[in-house]
Amino acid sequence: MAWVYLLIAGVLEVIWAFTMKQSNGFTNLKYSVITIVAMIASFGLLSIAMRSLPLGTAYTIWTGIGAVGAFAVGITVLGEQISAMRIAAAVLIVSGLVLMKLSAGE
Description:
Layout (H helix, E strand, L loop, with lengths): L1 H21 L6 H21 L5 H22 L7 H21 L2
Helix pairs in contact: 1-2, 1-3, 3-4
């Protein structure tokens, strides 16, 4: 169940990163509230996952989901630049996440 909590926490990290961008420096109340609620939920689920997962594994996977997810949302929703180097970087991050999961032995 810890892996499910960690996955949801990572998705919430993507949500709060996107809504933080939409909040315009916390000047838009709706997006500011969504950001804060998603942050609290993300941290809460991460802490629950860390009860049984190693710190390095849980934190690396959480930040990796957030980084790659925010990258994907930036490209698909916000129209951010896409390049071979950025795609390669995302592939390397995902490769690291897979290796981290495999090394956890759970």
